[in-house]
Amino acid sequence: MITPAPPSWREESRPPDESTTAWALAARAGDAVAVERFVRALHRDVLRYVAHLCADPQAVDDLAQDTFLRALGSLHRFEGRSSARAWLLSIARRAVIDGYRYAAARPRLSDVPDWQLAAELAQPRGLPGFDEGVALLDLLAALPVERREAFVLTQLLGLPYAEAAEISECPVGTVRSRVARARETLTALLADADAEVSGGAVLVA
Length: 205
What we know:
By secondary structure, the protein is mostly helical. It has helices at about 15-30, 30-55, 60-75, 85-105, 115-120, 135-140, 145-155, 160-170, 170-205. About 65% of the residues lie in helices and about 0% in strands.
């Protein structure tokens, strides 16, 4: 059973990548305490990432669980060449892709994506440039999935562009371009939202 991080575990309290990588290497050697620390440290990041990629909110917890089961089963192959977080998110991405393939092979009850409900844990706090009254999740939903993934990895989860490129299996320049375009789109959407709020205030007055 994978023990999730407590609700109060937030990105500002995340251990540095050096620590999580060291725990992964220790876990590979059979250290049970290191396994627990590794899982607890990265459980929230996996949930956030999977929630932004997955179209089925009911599958997020299962995909996170599957990610850690795959990772723990593959620890013997982890050598620390990249950070444990980047390595784990790569596994999470493959778990989501496999989940899509499995879903495509069985009947679907609904074609309406509702990943926002599952992504509430991913709502960032104190992010520069975003008013508290604007739901960032709704704005992210307007982005193409590739740009949303690049933005989430680099701007919300804080991964370096090189690691985001490794996870996304594309060149670093492509990640930078996707993030830049995502920012342009989000800025435009924010401007529209502000205009609507200002216009409404004028009408009320």
